[in-house]
Write a structure and sequence with these properties.
single chain, alpha/beta, Rossmann fold, Tumour Suppressor Smad4, 2 domains, six-stranded antiparallel beta sheet
Length: 300
Amino acid sequence: MKSKFQNVALVGKYQTTTASASGANSRAALLAVARFLDDQGCDVALEHDTALNMGLTDYPALSVTQIGKQCDLALVVGGDGTMLGIGRQMAPFGVPLIGINQGRLGFITDVPYGSFTTSLAQMLGGAYVEDHRSLINARVLRDGDCVYHATAMNDVVVNRGASSGMVELRVEVDGHFVANQRADGLIIATPTGSTAYALSSGGPLLHPSIPGWVMVPIAPHTLSNRPIVLANSSRIAIEVVSGRDASASFDTQSLASLMHGDRIEVTRSKHHVRFLHPQGWSYFDTLREKLHWNEGVAAT
C-alpha cells in the first residue's frame, strides 16, 4: 500500500542521553521506526535536536520550521511530554502528528511501540481518525507590559512558592470579577490537560470536542471554591494579590516568576494541534485503559 504521506519527520525523546539505558532504548526505537518508514517508501528526516543529541547522522536533520514547511507528517517517538513540546510548535503549520508511546501514560501518544508496525502501516495508507486539540495563549503582564508569553496545550498553572504559604489570586473572566481565591494555586486546563494536573486536583474530564476550559483551584482555603468549566472564548485574568515566590508554568515545560500585581492573561490560540489516531480510536477507550476503569469488572 502506497503511503499517503511522502515526507515524514521523526521527533524523539532526546532529553534522555544515550549513555543511559533508556537513552539507548530511545535511540534504537527511533531507528527502528525510521527504517520502517523507509520500507514504506517515505522520505525520512529527523528533527534537528533529536538528531544532534542522539548522534544520528543517517537521515537529514531539519529545524522545526523546516519540518513545518516541508513535511506532510511528524511522528513522535516518546511520551506525552515530548508530544506536548513538538505539538505546540507544529500547530501554526498544520502538520499532523502521530504519537508512538515509549512513555508511561500515553494519553496523546497512543500507538504502542510494541505494535507500531501494524498500526502505522494502516495509518500511512489513510486509515486513521483525525482529532483536533485546542491551545492556550498566555501572557504575564507587569505594570501593563508583557514580560513573558507562552503557548500551552495542557494547562497554565499559577503556583505558590515551594516554602511559602498560600497565594491569594484575583480572578476575572471577560472583565467580570469572579473571586479572590486563597489556595496553593490555580489551574486553567484545556480538554487535553483535563487528564493531567487538573484531574489530580479534583477537576472534571473534558471531552476533546468540547470548546471549553476547566478552572481548578489547588487545595483551596475555602472548600466551596470548586472547579468550573468555562467557554474557551473567554479571556481569563489572574492577578497575584499576595504570597511569596509565586510562579506560572505552561505545560510544566516553561516557567515565569511572578511578583505581586502581576496579571496572567489567558486566551484561546487561533491554532490547534492535529493528531492522527489508529482507525477505530475512541477517547473513551483511552480513558478506560489509562485510568484503569473496569478493573475487576467483566466487560459486556
